[in-house]
Amino acid sequence: MTTKALEQSGLFDQPGLFDVAADGPQFEPLGGHVHRTELTDGAWVDVRPGWLTGSDELLHTLLAVVPRRAERRQMYDRVVAVPRLVSFYEQGAALPDPLLAAARAALDDHYRDELREPFTTAGLCCYRDGSDSVAWHGDTIGRGRTEDTMVAILSLGADRPLLLRPRGGGPSMRFAAGHGDLLVMGGSCQRTWEHCIPKTLRPTGTRVSVQFRPCGVR
Ligand SMILES: O=C(O)CCC(=O)C(=O)O
Ligand SMILES: [Fe+2]
Fold first, then answer.
1. d(Cα 217, Cα 124) in Å, to the nearest integer?
2. DSSP H or E run through 83
3. Least C-beta-crowded within 10 Å: which of 17, 40, 172, 210?
4. What is the C-alpha end-to-end distance of the chain, expressed in Å?
5. Is-annotated flag, keyword Aminoacyl-tRNA synthetase (predicted)?
6. Which residues approach ligand 1 with their CB closer than 6 A?
7. Whole-model pTM?
8. How far apart are CA 38 and CA 149, in angstroms?
9. What pLDDT, on the 0 to 100 scale, is given for residue 6?
10. What 3-state class would DSSP assign to 30?
């Protein structure tokens, strides 16, 4: 979609976003700036607010260049329609913006010793407004079903909370996923906890989530 078409579609309509840095987009350091929350059963969540600054342009690029399709996804024993738009970049596929390669390199650098393998794939999800969402799930289509792993998420655009709850029930925890923020789910999180992006009735602009995962995790 061209920028003009985006403006006309309303997807470009992001009041409140003004993170256009004079010296261009920049990843702020991770070391010493990532806050870890230990969950139960060896699961954890890392949060680095404001990881990418000057990220308006990346949001617009992704909205413009990423081919998008409506998602159908295996949820437990059923394949269901998920109200959001997605695209997926397999290992080795060219990413739609060099900043995503830079993000992945920074994540590899920071998590190398703990993860012991690189982040290889990138998933993009576009939540057009508050009625787009993803229901409670773990990323258990691949190795996350049986192994500890990591899923790193760079959020762009509208603030939407990511909720986490223990698999099998329990109170949920709310994590902010705002423009330029990094959130990483790690350890056993995909198989012992579930996460979701709930719908909201609040007027909400478009959010794009970029998820980096190791090979075979989905
Ligand atoms: O939108 C997000 O940040 C979460 C996406 C997600 O959980 C998934 O695609 O598996
Ligand atoms: Fe997920």
1. 15
2. strand 78-89
3. 40
4. 27
5. no
6. 123, 125, 134, 139, 153, 162, 177, 195, 197, 209, 211
7. 0.89
8. 15
9. 43
10. coil
Question: CA 167 to CA 163: how far, in whole Å?
Answer: 12
Enumerate residues with CB within 5 Å of ligand 2 (an ion).
139
Distance 7 CA to ligand 1 centre (A): 25
Quick one: which atom of ligand 1 is closest to the CA of 183? 3
For residue 199, report the distance from its CA to the centre of ligand 2, in Å: 15
> CB of 140 within 8 A of CB of 190?
yes
Give the chain's length: 218
The string of pLDDT tens digits covering residues 55-81 is: 899 999 999 876 666 777 777 788 887
Give CA 75 to chain center in angstroms. Answer: 18
pLDDT, tens digit, 9 for 90 and up, residues 121-158: 999 999 999 999 999 999 999 999 999 999 999 999 99
Q: Which DSSP helix (H) or strand (E) runs through 65?
A: helix 56-65
Task: Pick the residue whose CA is nearest to atom 10 on ligand 1.
Answer: 139
Rounded distance from Cα 22 to ligand 1 centre (Å):
30
Using the mean position of ligand 2's atoms as its centre, give its distance from the Cα of residue 134 in Å: 8
Specify the DSSP class assigned to residue 61: H
Instruction: Identify whether the C-beta of residue 200 lies closer than 8 Å to the C-beta of residue 159.
Output: no
The class (CATH top level) of 34-214 is mainly beta
Site to substitute for ligand 1 among 45, 80, 125, most atoms within 8 A of C-beta: 125
